[in-house]
User: Which sequence fits this backbone?
């Protein structure tokens, strides 16, 4: 559930970031308001906790979920103060999940910074994550109607359920691709979807527009999570700015590995399964050769493209404005990033 990372040399990374900033230009001022409001939340905590909250809120993430809330609002009538608070709420929930993810994965880097668990240990970090969850729900109940609070609570629950199911299925070679997709739809798609859905809902557009944007967020979230899972396998830690390889070390079976198992005959499945579950670097190198020679890369990319296509179809019928165009542009951006990762650099 991480942020979009930039892979390649410094010039390529800078170009990708500039491209994303251009896409978000219609909401640049509103994102600044979200950032200010987000950092102001630390003052709501007692002194003994405030510095820890400030630390985890001050990462260099791209604020994708607030961006989606703002763009959905702009696409359906305009961005209001309520959208700013919504952006803060969904980002607080997202950051809470990252804090908990890093504990589970024993990750040491996030956005190029030391993770909370590496800095303070698991006990303090899990409680900081809990505080952020609770504070997000408090904001929702204080500033928004009951329907918004209910939707935010449902999405938070879905994220946690997805994480539980993924944790339960670690090292489980019988996990199917469909089960994996169901899990990432909960752990990532749910928060993308509610960001878009509520961004529209606050403007009271036709119900069809709210539904379309919710489905857009869901499909975008699945495409993004598959991409992020591929970064963990194929990426480089320096460019990604976070600990990589944690999925395999922790037994999380993501799409490329599940596709490899599907492509493996019964006579070799046990051997390949043992390679997947073995953390030895030599075995990992052998595994990568298999991944690159069994059609897994092209099939992973095709799956990302399929969800991007569904998300693009969700935008049909929405008002044609700069905010809707930016939502479509985010699909192009993720598709382009996926191709760089899975074609150009993997082939090299």
Assistant:
């Amino acid at each position: 559930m991480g942020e979009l990372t930039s892979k390649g040399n410094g010039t390529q990374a800078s170009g990708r970031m500039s491209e994303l900033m251009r896409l978000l230009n219609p909401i640049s001022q509103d994102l600044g308001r979200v950032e200010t409001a987000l950092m102001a939340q630390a003052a709501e905590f007692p002194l003994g906790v405030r510095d820890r909250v400030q630390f985890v809120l001050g990462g260099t993430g791209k604020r994708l979920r607030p961006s989606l809330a703002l763009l959905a609002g702009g696409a359906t009538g305009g961005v209001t103060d309520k959208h700013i608070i919504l952006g803060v709420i969904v980002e607080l929930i997202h950051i809470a999940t990252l804090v908990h993810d890093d504990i589970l994965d024993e990750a040491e880097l996030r956005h190029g910074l030391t993770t909370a668990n590496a800095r303070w240990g698991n006990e303090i970090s899990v409680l900081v994550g809990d505080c952020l969850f609770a504070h997000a729900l408090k904001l929702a109940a204080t500033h928004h109607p009951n329907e918004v609070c209910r939707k935010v609570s449902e999405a938070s629950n879905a994220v946690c359920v997805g994480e539980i199911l993924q944790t339960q299925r670690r090292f489980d070679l019988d996990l199917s691709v469909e089960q994996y997709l169901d899990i990432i739809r909960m752990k990532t798609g749910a928060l993308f979807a509610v960001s878009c859905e509520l961004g529209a809902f606050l403007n009271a557009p036709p119900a069809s527009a709210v539904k379309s944007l919710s489905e857009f967020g869901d499909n975008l979230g699945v495409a993004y999570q598959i991409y992020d899972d591929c970064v963990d396998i194929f990426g480089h830690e320096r460019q990604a700015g976070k600990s990589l390889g944690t999925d395999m070390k922790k037994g999380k079976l993501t799409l490329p590995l599940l596709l490899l198992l599907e492509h493996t005959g019964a006579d070799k499945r046990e051997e390949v399964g043992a390679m997947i579950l073995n953390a030895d670097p030599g075995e990992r190198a052998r595994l990568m050769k298999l991944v690159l020679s069994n059609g897994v890369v092209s099939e992973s990319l095709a799956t990302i493209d399929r969800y991007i296509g569904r998300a693009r179809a969700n935008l049909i019928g929405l008002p044609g404005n700069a905010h809707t165009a930016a939502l479509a542009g985010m699909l192009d951006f993720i598709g382009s990033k996926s191709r760089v990762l899975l074609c150009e650099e993997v082939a090299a």
